[in-house]
C-alpha cells in the first residue's frame, strides 16, 4: 500500500507533485492546521504529516496518530512540534534547515530599514494625502552598531548583509566559535555588552527555555537609549509588555516584529504604537524560499517513507538514500540480534555492548545501534522503534558501549551484541550473507549457523548423547514440524546450544517438557 501524507498548512504545489511522482498519496488541506479537532479526527489515516508553523503537533494530537511515521516541517523552527512526544512514539521529526534562511535574513534587513526610515507610517500618511514631509525624520544605518542575538545560519546571513551596509556588527551567541566570528566579520561579545552598545538589535535564536524572554524588562532597561529592536525569529524571545512600556517611555525608539507570543496575532501589546512595524510571520514568505522548503520537505519525507533514507531529522541519525540499500539488511540484522538477546534476557539489563567488525564497522553504526537497541527493548516495550530506542535506553540508564574494528575475520562483517545483567553477560553475533539474509553465527562464544525464522526454540544443554533424538521425538509427538535444526557446542561433552526453527508455536506446556528433558539447562521460545 502506498504511504499517505497529509499536508495541513499552506505549501507550494511543488510538494504535492513531488509526493505524487515518488509514489506517495497526498492530501493537501492547507487550512487544516488551524482546526485542531478536525486534524485529530483524521490524523490516524496518515503515515506522514507535512506542516509549516500553523499546525501544532502536540502530544495529544500524536496520541491519535496511530500510523504516523514522520512529521516534516517545511521550514526551520520546530517549536510547534512536541519532539519528545514524537520520539516516544517513534515518529521522526525533520525540518529543512537552510531553505528559507536567506529569505528570513532579508526580511530582518527589510524591517531594519522600515524602522530606520519609518517607511510603513510614511507610506500610510502619504497615501492618505497628508504629505507630512517634516514628520518623518529617519536615522542612517551606516556606521551604526547592529547587535545580533543568535548568530547561526540566519543571524550569520544578517551579519554578512549588515557588514555590506557598512554597519559594525557585534554578536552574542555562546556557540559561535571565534574563527566563525572572524569569518563573518562580527565581534563576539557577551549579552550585557551587546545590550549596552547596540543601536539596532536583531534576534535569531530558536525559542527554548534558555532564550524565552532573553530580552526581558531587565535586559531592555540595560539597552542603549534609542535602541531599535527587530524580531524575525520567534514570539516569546522578547517580553512584549515590557517592550511596549519601553516604547511608551521613549527608551526604545522602535520595534519591528514578524513573530508574536500568540499567533495568529489579532491583538498584541505592541499594536498601535507609532514606532512599531509588524508583519504576520512573513519571514519565510518568498516564492523562492517556499519553493525550496516545499521541494525539500517532500523529497525528504518521500525518501523516508519509500526508501528508508533519513535526512535533517531532529530525533534520529541520518541515513542517506545512497547508503540505505547497503545498510538496510544490517539494520534488520542488528534489530534481530538485539531481539534475540532481548528475548533471552529475563532480568534487568544493566548495559549493552555493540561490536562492529569488518565492513560493517565502516557503515553508519549510529543507525545500526538504534536498530539493535530497538530489538533489545521490544520484548518489553512493544512500541519502541529506531527513533525512540536510544532515548528510551538512556532514560532507563542502560550503558551503551560501541566498539568498531575494521579488520575482517572469517566473515566480511560481524555484528556482536552483548547484554549485561547483574548475573551475567550474554553475547549473540550475526552477519549478512550475499543473499541479503541475516544469520546468527555465534551465541555465547559458541559458533553456529542459523537463519532467523518466525518461530524458534532455543535450548542450552550439556552435550550428551541422546538429547537431539529426545527433543525431535518430543516435538514430533506434539505434531510440530522442525524446519531447520542448528547446533553448536563449546567442546565435546560441554555446553551446547540448539536453535530449532519450527512450523507453528510451542505452547507453555510443551516448553516445560523440553525444559524437563535430561541435560537441558534452559529452553526458550523466540519469535521474529
Ligand atoms: N520569521 C520566520 O518566518 C522565520 C523564523 N525563523 C526562526 O529563526 C530561528 C533561527 O534560525 P537559524 O538561524 O536557521 O537557526 P540556527 O540553529 O542556525 O541558529 C540559531 C543560533 O542561535 C544560537 N543560540 C542558541 N541558544 C542561544 C542563546 N541562549 N543565546 C544566544 N544564542 C543562542 C545558536 O548557537 C545558533 O547559532 C529559528 O529557530 C526560527 O525560530 C526561521 C525561519 C523563518
Ligand atoms: O521556518 C521557520 O522557522 C518559520 O518560522 C517559517 O514559518 P512559516 O513556514 O512561514 O509558517
UniProtKB/TrEMBL annotation:
Q: Which GO terms describe its molecular function?
A: NAD binding; phosphoglycerate dehydrogenase activity
Q: Which reaction does it catalyse?
A: (2R)-3-phosphoglycerate + NAD(+) = 3-phosphooxypyruvate + NADH + H(+); (R)-2-hydroxyglutarate + NAD(+) = 2-oxoglutarate + NADH + H(+)
- Specify the enzyme's EC class, one word: oxidoreductase
Question: What Gene Ontology biological process does one annotation of this record name?
Answer: L-serine biosynthetic process
The protein's annotated pathway: Amino-acid biosynthesis; L-serine biosynthesis; L-serine from 3-phospho-D-glycerate: step 1/3
Does the keyword field hold Oxidoreductase?
yes
- Gene3D superfamilies registered for this protein in UniProt: 3.30.70.260, D-3-phosphoglycerate dehydrogenase, domain 3 (3.30.1330.90), NAD(P)-binding Rossmann-like Domain (3.40.50.720)
Signal peptide positions (record):
none
Give the top-rank taxon of the lineage listed in the UniProt record for this protein.
Bacteria
Q: Which UniProt keywords apply?
A: Amino-acid biosynthesis, NAD, Oxidoreductase, Serine biosynthesis
Family annotation (InterPro entries): ACT-like_dom_sf, ACT_dom, ASB_dom_sf, D-isomer_2_OHA_DH_cat_dom, D-isomer_DH_CS, D-isomer_DH_CS1, D-isomer_DH_NAD-bd, NAD(P)-bd_dom_sf
Q: Which residues form the ACT domain?
A: 456-528
Q: What is its EC number?
A: 1.1.1.95
SUPFAM superfamilies (UniProt xref): ACT-like, Formate/glycerate dehydrogenase catalytic domain-like, NAD(P)-binding Rossmann-fold domains, Serine metabolism enzymes domain
What task does this protein carry out? Catalyzes the reversible oxidation of 3-phospho-D-glycerate to 3-phosphonooxypyruvate, the first step of the phosphorylated L-serine biosynthesis pathway. Also catalyzes the reversible oxidation of 2-hydroxyglutarate to 2-oxoglutarate.
The text of the family note is: Belongs to the D-isomer specific 2-hydroxyacid dehydrogenase family.
Under the heading PANTHER family, the entry gives:
FORMATE DEHYDROGENASE 1 (PTHR42938), HYDROXYPYRUVATE REDUCTASE (PTHR42938:SF47)
What the entry lists under NCBIfam families is as follows: PGDH
Official protein name in the record = D-3-phosphoglycerate dehydrogenase
What species does this protein belong to? Methyloraptor flagellatus
Q: Gene for this protein? A: serA
